[in-house]
Design brief:
With 406 residues, this protein is of the alpha+beta class. The protein has a single domain, classed as Cytochrome p450 (Orthogonal Bundle), CATH 1.10.630. It is built from 16 helices and twelve strands. A hairpin with a 4-residue loop joins strand 1 and strand 2. Helix 6 runs antiparallel to helix 8 and helix 8 packs antiparallel against helix 12.
């Protein structure tokens, strides 16, 4: 085990945030697990370990199904943050069996492959419309003009949220997701609480309306979903809707802009893609590996584990470094190179185990649709100005991506 204090890992350093991958290489070279005092976490940088730990039932996204905060040696969140934690703690991403099993089973009855397949024409049509508008304008901000509107509209369409109600969705999502960064500030928490209250209130009204008049949307499906007498509670439905928006939208937005920025910096790969659009599926996978949208995923240690001779006690928190795992040379040949033809690509950008991303098929459809539309409608798309990185580590993205066409 290496001390992290003498390594280049610093999630608040702009230089690290600009390119964390050299620091990850140093972490992997120095050992399989590292204690990081600023966040009181154990960092795990290797693909094999991360992949195994994602499936290890001695770890959990929560500990409250087995322990109180006091029993686990942790402090309860401050009371003023209760609306955020109520919303967050009833979503299946932050639950463990048996609650996770029950909720995921019920959500899967509504969020079916047929539901996703039915959205394909809408996704492709909207992607084409957004790409065409960008091309006709001669360029713009790829983030605001294409990357953001597409997944927000798709999730809203799927949930049955009217177009007139969609404007707050992106700000609500951004404010809630601020809490997933390392050591969030009081201001970040206050914004997350406000967004949690407003979003929950809105969804409560939407659910009430769908109970009276069910439709073909996912909210109606969640209301109707039942299995052996089990149904989702209203809070579970609200938390599920918010999770689908936040996870689906944050990952897709950041994958899109991170991906295009990577293509602009690798012109030979971009030319390869422009010449052969059949590479789009493998390009989507490679771009998610190359600059991972979710860099870190946390787990609580419910029962003592050992990694490479280091004992990690119950009550500790493990930070699995997805970005590092996706650049592990033990798994990926020449991992620092962008290779859109890469076939053996077991990246873990969608996680693994029981918490594998339920929206992964939809995310792949969205990413392929926007990429295909931009390649067709804006074949001369190029970078207009160097972008600024968001000052975030866990959710990796850009403030904007200025592009030109023509």
């Amino acid at each position: 085990m290496a001390a992290v204090s003498d390594l280049a890992f610093d999630p608040w350093d702009p230089a690290f945030l600009a390119d964390p991958y050299p620091a990850y290489a140093e972490l992997r070279a120095r050992g399989r697990v590292h204690y990081y005092e600023p966040t009181n976490q154990w960092l795990v940088p290797h693909h094999a370990d991360v992949s195994a730990l994602l499936r290890d039932r001695r770890l959990g996204r929560t500990y409250q199904h087995r322990f109180t905060h006091e029993e686990f040696g942790r402090t309860a969140p401050p009371p003023e943050q209760e609306p955020f934690h109520t919303l967050n703690d009833h979503g299946m991403l932050d639950l463990e069996p048996p609650d996770h099993t029950r909720i995921r089973r019920l959500v899967s009855k509504a969020f079916t492959p047929r539901t996703v397949e039915r959205l394909k024409p809408y996704v492709r049509g909207l992607a084409d419309e957004l790409a065409s508008a960008l091309a006709e304008a001669g360029g713009g901000d790829l983030l605001k003009d294409v990357a953001e509107p597409l997944p927000v509209a798709v999730i809203a369409e799927m949930l049955g949220i009217p177009e007139s109600d969609r404007a707050p969705l992106r700000p609500w999502s951004a404010d809630i997701c601020g809490m997933y960064e390392l050591n969030p500030s009081g201001e970040t928490a206050a914004k997350a609480v406000r967004a949690s209250v407003e979003f929950s209130d809105y969804l409560r009204e939407l659910i009430a309306a769908r109970r009276k008049e069910p439709g073909e949307d996912l909210v109606s499906g969640l209301i109707a979903a039942h299995d052996e007498g089990d149904r989702l509670t209203e809070q579970e439905m609200i938390s599920t809707c918010v999770l689908l928006l936040n996870a689906g939208h944050e990952a897709t937005v950041n994958s899109t802009v991170n991906g295009w920025y990577a293509l602009f910096r690798n012109p030979s790969q971009l030319e390869l893609l422009r010449a052969d659009h059949t590479l789009i599926p493998s390009a989507v996978e490679e771009l998610m590996r190359y600059d991972t949208p979710l860099q870190l995923f946390e787990r609580w240690v419910l029962d003592e584990i050992e990694i490479a001779g280091t004992t990690i006690p119950r009550g500790a928190e493990i930070a699995m470094l997805f970005g590092s795992a996706n650049h592990d040379p033990a798994v990926f040949e020449n991992p620092s190179a962008l290779d859109l033809t890469r076939q053996d690509n077991p990246h873990i950008s969608f996680s693994a185990g029981i918490h594998y991303c339920i929206g992964a098929p939809l995310a792949r459809i969205e990413l392929a649709a926007s990429m295909g539309a931009l390649l067709e409608r804006a074949p001369t798309l190029r970078l207009a100005a160097e972008p600024e990185r968001k000052p975030n580590f866990v959710i990796r993205g850009l403030e904007g991506l200025a592009v030109e066409v023509g």
